[in-house]
Amino acid sequence: MTTFIRTVASEFAKLLSTRMWWILALVLFGYIGLLAGGLAALFAGIQSGAIDPSAGGAGGQGAPPLGSIPPLIYSFASSVGYVFPVLLGALATTGEFRHQTLTPTFLATPRRAGVLGAKTLTLFVVGVGLGVVALLASVGIGALVMGAFGVDTLLGDGETWTLIGRTLLTMGLWAIIGVGLGALVPSQVASIVIVLAFTQFVEPLLRLASSFLDWTAQIAQFLPGAASDALVGASIFTGMGQAGLSAVALEWWQGGLVLLAYAAAATIGGYFVSWNRDVT
Amino acid sequence: MPVGAVIEFSNITKTFGPVKAVDDLSFSVQPGRVTGFLGPNGAGKTTSLRILLGLVAATHGTATFGGIRYRDLPKPLETVGAALEAASFHPGRTARNHLGVYAIAAGLPAARVMAVLEKVGLAEFADRRVGGFSLGMRQRLGLAFTLLGDPGVLVLDEPINGLDPEGIKWIRGFLRDMAAEGRTVLVSSHLLSEVQQSVDDVIIIARGSLVHRGPLSSLDEHATPHIVVDAPDRDALAAALRAADVPFTIGRSGLVAASGDPALIGHIAFSAGVELSALHRQKSGLEESFLALVNGADSQ
């Protein structure tokens, strides 16, 4: 047990002794802050009458009802920001292959499953940390802007805090998925391309396309991004209430279990694909 | 003072697909001595060492430290220090943090980090990112890693590669000191001349198989003696040697005859009436014996 604790401490030291974690945190904060602030101003402006919807052309038509604006804005932390913990997790694993640091790592801790377990736990905690950063941006800046337009920020509402708590859990799980993906695809470049292509392009398209038919929508709710949104309980995808389209979603706990299953499958698969192989 | 353990390779075989990288390798390495693990590039040295350290799984056989496999050592870094290649670093990490990461994993006191950096002469670069290090500095950092746990066994793969003359001199002294303290020191090289001045024992492999083991001096037995002989009239000398059935080659400073007996060559020349300008025994280099052993295995 003490070995495992030392391994976790070592994994934390690894992650925090290079620049990647704070660069990603900084970009995450800026990106989510801009998005949450901007859209909060747009939606709140329309709803409060400060912005005339007809002036914005079609843009006004998609504006959600008043009460759903705050959770929608707050959920940007995970619905848009989830790519950051995945990237950090994937970089943490693929970096070990790329820089051949698996050699000293396994010399110091020959029990490899323990090292992967420690890395998983470490990245979960740091993923939750990224969640805090993302929420500071989405809730902090979002609430500030909505408050300025006189829209209720719902910060006194218990449901808002449930959403914040689940967002943290979601971000931690995504970081583990990143660790597993990095072990499944140890090539750093390939891993990053897969993360960006899947999260920014493939999955959003699949979710949109699948929502036209009921049976495809039933399958699409198990996509990792959809499960993630279900766990958080709100998202730009579900919140926009695409009229006429089937937007089914899992229960929050089901979404959590599906996301956990992805994380476990990727990590355990990665252990056999690369982690437990010869280090040459 | 750390106690050196005996390294034992027992029937180690490793196949990569159809290729046999290591073939039934068995030998032991004793504490208190520097043992050179020699062989040409591609002979299977690095693979053997990686099997010893649990990084590569052997197809067959076991390699142990005092009877215990690496992955079963209760305190690996305090038992064995290993440096395998010069590039096992994250370039964005400082030397101090690089060592710190593994000191934490092994439960070693943080003070060990600066202690080993001082020992290898890198203390002033402790807070520089490793990405900016020269090859020689990386080699030293690799050695610093091996010393973190003050282990009784050192396993170094090609530690002299990329070092400047001053660094080579330093590492030779370092290897001798480590063995003198009673540690087991196993150091690989593809050049005998690189480690000749520091090793007590040699283990030579070629094509994954053991071709020679023993003290360094045992290589002498494999040396073929030569006589260098020269004459003002070199053609006449050559004719005389040919007539006497002594094989020879033409060297830079005369004819090199394959014989161990200068008197015999002198007699041949005298009988033929050839005046000699040089006649001496050529000390056959250990390197030559080494190459003969390695090439002998190649031609099989």
TrEMBL record, chain A:
Keywords: Membrane, Transmembrane, Transmembrane helix
Tree of life domain: Bacteria
Regions crossing the membrane: 21-46, 72-92, 121-151, 171-198, 252-273
Protein name: ABC transporter permease
TrEMBL record, chain B:
Keywords: ATP-binding, Nucleotide-binding, Transport
Molecular function GO labels: ATP binding; ATP hydrolysis activity
Ranges where the ABC transporter domain occurs: 7-232
UniProt-listed PROSITE patterns: ABC_TRANSPORTER_2 (PS50893)
SMART domains in UniProt: AAA (SM00382)
Pfam short name (any one): ABC_tran
InterPro entries named among the record's database cross-references: AAA+_ATPase, ABC_transporter-like_ATP-bd, P-loop_NTPase
Top-level taxonomic group: Bacteria
Family indicated by similarity: Belongs to the ABC transporter superfamily.
Protein name: ATP-binding cassette domain-containing protein
Species this chain originates from: Cryobacterium tagatosivorans
Lineage, uppermost ranks: Bacteria, Bacillati, Actinomycetota, Actinomycetes, Micrococcales
